[in-house]
Design brief:
The complex is a heterodimer. Chain A has two domains: 166 residues, P-loop containing nucleotide triphosphate hydrolases (Rossmann fold, 3-Layer(aba) Sandwich); 77 residues, no CATH class. Chain A contains eight helices and ten strands. In chain A, helix 3 packs across helix 4 and helix 4 packs parallel to helix 5. Chain A is globular and about 65 Å long. Helix content of chain B is 77%, strand content 0%. Chain B has 13 helices and no strands. In chain B, helix 2 packs antiparallel against helix 3 and helix 5 crosses helix 13. Chain B starts with a helix and ends in a 17-residue tail after the last helix. The chains are: A alpha/beta, B mainly alpha.
């Protein structure tokens, strides 16, 4: 099996010391809607993520995975509970959290280069204009987009856009990474490439960054994470957190024949599908009530 | 055309496309040439006699040169260019043939093209003054509207409470024709110029405001979230994120505003001006000089085409990143 060779840039050492942080979600609840018809989206979510830990959130769509990313990044305040970033409460959005969304992290009116420069400039990690541009160029080279720095995102393919998004958040030097199904819209080959790129960038350097990664792909979660939190819908809550015991670096081929991997995968799937079947049955019963 | 572009890769396809295009181009030149010969070599109908047809002849030559230059410079839009020139040249040919030579319609109300085009020579100065005067008023009123409506619209779209007040008002007021304010603007403002500028400002202000407010309000919340994470100040948020995000909508509002401005200007000039394009048509209408009226109309059409052309270029430049308005159109790179 040939492994993709990524350029080694020691990107994260740009900032001298590498900072990371712990994330603590403490009894997070979220309800929305008017009085009377309020809908509970999240109920008592607790999750502690250690320094340099890679945690995946998996669950069926509509279970509130993305909402947890929104809350953790400070974009949306929870109805109850607190989020702690290194012990300090998160009160609003900030550059400590580098967030990647599915397909909307880049501003379409800026070229890839301008996008990265803009992010660096506002995360206040570099001083002069020249430093910013040099840094942006380096990060784009790192994800293989050096040649495409002057084009607008809509002329790039989905995979290239996500590479630019990854370059963008790594260049911001955040303490933690929040990723909301970043590879969900990509075809399977591109997804494999992006997973390897992410792991490569993440594991480079002495101190890994803390990552909260949302996905609905069990294989992806197993390949990337140290632990996997499984969510169940209505109201969204964490049903179970499992350890992923495989040593790093992980290789797809080795994993795919590892009996432990298969057992873990089937365990995760049974939880997910079990919930899904229950959910469908519940909906059918509600429908019968109407008829 | 679709079948041509389909086969464009093959040699035969390319040859057939070239020959088909040169056939079309030949048709344009042939019609223009026919019009020329018809004008010069055949006698006019007695009612439509003109003693000088040099300007019309010059115009036909000008069209030929313009079309030749287009063919030479712009290979991509060759088909649509050809179609437009085909319509213009066919129109000129029929005009000359049916009115100039056969005088099928009342020659007083429907003069021959040679007579109409003569006006461009005799009235050059008056027409040039008219264009300058009209454009000055138009640009002043329209720019004022842009300068006021865009910042207000951006801010109002961003602040929910302001949006709730301004958007319904703007939507209700914007369809009211600006000319309803004419009686008061004439009484209250000192000159025709200032009151026309005011009318155009009012007429253009609301559509731009609506476009702008709506553009900000409907901006993709995921992009806004992406920006909020960067901790931008209000000014940076508006300047770097909301303005570009709202730009497509601002341009569609500005387009409507431009059309309304031109209508407002023409109406105002017809009612109260002493110069300008609208005034020119109205003035000669009073003397029943229909060849002047038609010449005025042609001039106005040319000016409108010019303005719209500039608008399109500006829009294309500012929305060059946009998948629909911009150069691109979906991914062109992939790896």
């Amino acid at each position: 099996m040939t492994r993709i060779k990524f350029p080694s840039g020691m990107a994260l050492n740009f900032y001298g010391g590498i900072k990371t942080a712990t994330i603590d979600l403490k009894s997070i609840s979220l309800s929305y809607g008017n009085k009377g018809t309020s809908h509970k989206a999240l109920s008592d979510v607790n999750l502690s993520i250690g320094n340099g830990e890679f945690i995946s959130l998996i669950g069926p769509s509509g279970c509130g995975k993305s909402t947890i990313i929104d809350i953790t990044s400070g974009l949306r305040p929870p109805s109850e509970g607190v989020i702690l970033l290194d012990g300090a409460q998160v009160k609003g959005p900030g550059t400590d959290c580098g967030t990647v969304f599915q397909d909307y992290s880049l501003f379409p009116w800026m070229t890839t280069f301008e996008n990265v420069c803009f992010a660096i400039e506002h995360s206040k990690k570099a001083g002069t204009h020249k430093d910013i541009e040099k840094m942006a160029q380096k990060f784009l080279d790192l994800v293989g987009l050096g040649k495409f720095k002057d084009v607008y995102p809509n002329t790039l393919s989905g995979g290239m856009r996500q590479r630019a998004s990854i370059a963008r958040i790594f260049s911001m030097g955040p303490k933690v990474f929040l990723m909301d199904e970043p590879f969900g819209a990509l075809d399977s080959l591109n997804r494999i490439y992006m997973q390897d790129l992410l792991l490569h960038l993440w594991s480079e350097g002495d101190q890994r960054k803390t990552v909260l990664f949302v996905t609905h792909d069990v294989d992806e979660a197993l390949l990337l994470s140290d632990r996997i939190a499984i969510m169940t819908p209505s109201p969204g809550s964490i049903k179970e957190v499992v350890e992923v015991p495989f040593s790093r670096p992980r290789h797809r081929k080795d994993l795919s024949i590892d009996p432990n991997y298969l057992a873990l995968k089937s365990h995760l799937l049974s939880i997910l599908y079990g919930e899904m079947v229950e959910e469908i049955e519940k909906q059918e019963k509600e429908l019968e009530g109407f008829v | 055309m679709s079948e041509n572009s389909f086969r464009v890769g093959t040699v035969t396809g390319r040859i057939s496309m070239i020959s088909k295009n040169s056939l079309r181009a030949g048709t344009v030149f042939a019609i223009l040439l026919a019009t020329l010969i018809l004008t010069v070599a055949f006698p006019d109908s007695p009612e439509q006699m003109v003693n000088d047809n040099s300007v019309f002849v010059a115009f036909i030559f000008l069209l030929m040169i313009a079309y030749g230059a287009k063919l030479y410079l712009n290979h991509e839009k060759i088909v649509s260019t050809t179609d437009i020139f085909l319509i213009i040249s066919l129109g000129l040919f029929l005009w000359e043939l049916l009115l100039g030579k056969f005088a099928l319609l009342d020659s007083f109300i429907f003069p021959a093209p040679a007579k109409v085009f003569m006006v461009f020579q005799t009235d050059t100065k008056q027409m040039a003054n008219g264009i300058v005067s009209s454009l000055e008023i138009l640009l002043a009123g329209y720019s004022l509207a842009l300068v006021f409506a865009i910042p207000i619209g951006l801010y109002a779209g961003w602040k929910k409470r302001l949006f709730d007040i301004i958007y319904p008002i703007a939507k209700t007021v914007s369809p009211i024709p600006a000319t309803v304010y004419l009686p008061y603007s004439i009484v209250l403002l000192p000159t025709f110029r200032s009151s026309s500028i005011f009318l155009i400002f009012i007429g253009a202000f609301w559509p731009i405001l609506v476009g702008c407010v709506y553009g900000v309000f409907s901006a993709d919340s995921r992009l806004i979230n992406s920006a909020r994470i960067l901790g931008l100040s209000d000014y940076q948020m508006i300047r770097r994120i909301l303005l570009p995000a709202a730009l497509p909508s601002i341009f569609s509002g500005a387009m409507i505003a431009l059309i309304l401005s031109f209508i407002t200007l023409t109406v105002a000039e017809m009612i109260a001006a002493t110069s300008g394009l609208g005034w020119y048509i109205q003035y000669y209408h009073q003397f029943a000089n229909y060849y002047n009226v038609i010449a005025g109309m042609i001039l106005m059409i040319v000016v409108v085409i010019g303005i719209m052309n500039v608008f399109d270029r500006v829009q294309k430049h500012f929305l060059r990143w946009h998948p629909v308005h911009g150069e691109g159109g979906g991914p062109t790179f992939s790896s």
